[in-house]
């Protein structure tokens, strides 16, 4: 999966890489030059598979959020520095799809095996609600 974000002079793209059995990374590349700018390794949790699944940037383009599948987390990456800012654990059972609201205040994760979506308040990193939606939700989109 990849997504595009236009911030500053560089048109940066983010590609989710599922390398190795126990890890994953995000590759940041310049869409104008097709050159890799950097690679961000996602944190692992006690031997749990951490694989990037869904990607979404905040409306201001400063943060990239990544769901981690079996890792059960939502990871925030600073776009300017490519540093992992935090990992919000326990957002759902295998969060796959990801969407942010138009203000960048809430994240919505599609949690496949548990058949629900989670609403995560980004300021606090707290899951405020889980909504049952049926069998194996994979993707999600936010529409105001």
Task: Give the tags.
single chain, 144 residues, mainly beta, Methylamine Dehydrogenase, Chain H, 4-stranded antiparallel sheet, 0% helix
Low-confidence stretches: none
The CATH level-2 architecture is identified as: 7 Propeller
Strand order in the largest sheet: 1-2-3-4
Any idea what the radius of gyration is?
14 Å
Order of helices and strands: EEEEEEEEEEEE
Give the CATH superfamily.
Answer: YVTN repeat-like/Quinoprotein amine dehydrogenase
Mean pLDDT across all amino acids: 85
The first-level CATH class is given as Mainly Beta
List the helices and strands and how they pair.
Elements: E1 2-7, E2 10-17, E3 25-30, E4 35-41, E5 55-57, E6 63-67, E7 73-78, E8 83-89, E9 95-100, E10 106-111, E11 116-121, E12 126-132
Antiparallel strand pairs: 1-2, 2-3, 3-4, 5-6, 6-7, 7-8, 9-10, 10-11, 11-12
Descriptive report:
With 144 residues, the chain is an all-beta fold. It has no helices and twelve strands. The strands form three sheets. A four-stranded antiparallel beta sheet has the order 1-2-3-4, with no helix packed on it. Strands 5-6-7-8 form a four-stranded antiparallel beta sheet, with no helix packed on it. A four-stranded antiparallel beta sheet has the order 9-10-11-12, with no helix packed on it. The mean pLDDT is 85.
């Amino acid at each position: 999966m990849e997504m595009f974000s236009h911030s500053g002079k560089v048109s940066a793209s983010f590609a989710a890489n599922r390398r190795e059995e126990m890890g994953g990374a995000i590759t940041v590349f310049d869409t104008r030059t097709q050159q890799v700018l950097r690679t961000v390794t996602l944190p692992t949790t006690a031997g749990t598979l951490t694989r990037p699944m869904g990607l979404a940037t905040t409306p201001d383009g400063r943060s990239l959020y990544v769901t981690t599948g079996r890792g059960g987390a939502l990871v925030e990456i600073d776009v300017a520095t490519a540093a992992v800012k935090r990992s919000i654990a326990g957002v759902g059972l295998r969060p796959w799809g990801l969407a942010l609201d138009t203000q960048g205040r809430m994240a919505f994760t599609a949690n496949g095996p548990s058949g629900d979506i989670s609403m995560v308040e980004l300021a606090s990193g707290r899951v405020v609600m889980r909504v049952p939606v049926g069998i194996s939700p994979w993707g999600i989109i936010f529409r105001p």
